[in-house]
Amino acid sequence: MSDLDDPTTDPFDVARSAAEHLARVTGVARHDVALVLGSGWGGAADLLGETVAEVPSHEVPGFSAPAVVGHVGTIRSIRIAGSGDGAGGADDAEGTPDRYALVLGSRTHLYEGRGVRRVVHGVRTAAATGARTVVLTNGCGGLNPAWGPGTPVLIRDHLNLTATSPLEGATFVDLTDLYSARLRDVARTVDPSLDEGVYVQFRGPHYETPAEVAMAGRLGGDLVGMSTTIEAIAARHAGLEVLGLSLVTNLAAGISATPLSHAEVLEAGQAAGPRISALLAQVVRRL
């Protein structure tokens, strides 16, 4: 059940096997929310609460070590403390219980060539652990010159330009409200200044050309990157409510005259990390 490369294997069986493994090694029977932390967002895990367990990704069925610098090769179970024993006040007479977050630091990208099943294995595993909400984050290029490097943007919708779907066979899923308006409203209770836009996923690993960025803009795109949309589709299929957050690490090709580089992405993520990590941790505690 652990071979996602075998087309006769049910990928949901592998996700259930991964969830069972995580329950054993973390001692947490059920997780409530999952986070996929992209470039720049990794520090949020340290601010959420107490880390109950940290597991190397490659030890969990269906997962492997990250292939991209800047991504963390572990899966963490984190306890988010509730108000406890009636301490919630008049509006919460019984208090709120502790919740558990599953933090996926190891993301597989489509351009790695490991197959779409591995790209979405994390969100399917999250659903199998009991999570009902997933927060998908990324670092991306921005088309709006007003969004300088370090700007967090809520994802309102997406354009999947990878010519790939995580769904197999006659599996029809409505994506009209894929990115939850309710969760975006929650995020804006933490930071009312958060803007929102349409995220465009290209296959990568090469950066987009200026002409491709111009095309994305004409199609309605505001952000360009190489992740997230395929995971979001799989998350909706698995029954998860989705919140998407992008960190603008650079202006996209043709918007700025500066050549693009992965080092620039990492530098912008590091510079914005403390601020956006604190933002994300506050948002997750309110979900």
Automatic annotation (TrEMBL):
InterPro entries: Nucleoside_phosphorylase_d (IPR000845), Nucleoside_phosphorylase_sf (IPR035994), PUNP (IPR011269), Purine_phosphorylase (IPR011268), Purine_phosphorylase-2_CS (IPR018099). The keyword Hydrolase does not apply. Pfam families: PNP_UDP_1. CDD domains: PNP-EcPNPII_like. It comes from the Bacteria. PROSITE patterns: PNP_MTAP_2. Keywords: Glycosyltransferase, Transferase. It catalyses: a purine 2'-deoxy-D-ribonucleoside + phosphate = a purine nucleobase + 2-deoxy-alpha-D-ribose 1-phosphate. Pathway: Purine metabolism; purine nucleoside salvage. One of its GO terms (molecular function) is purine-nucleoside phosphorylase activity. A purine D-ribonucleoside binds at residues 208, 250. It is an enzyme of class 2 (transferase). GO terms for biological process: nucleoside metabolic process. The purine nucleoside phosphorylases catalyze the phosphorolytic breakdown of the N-glycosidic bond in the beta-(deoxy)ribonucleoside molecules, with the formation of the corresponding free purine bases and pentose-1-phosphate. Cleaves guanosine, inosine, 2'-deoxyguanosine and 2'-deoxyinosine. Belongs to the PNP/MTAP phosphorylase family. NCBIfam families: PNPH-PUNA-XAPA, PRK08202.1, PUNP. Homotrimer. This is Purine nucleoside phosphorylase. It comes from Cellulomonas cellasea.
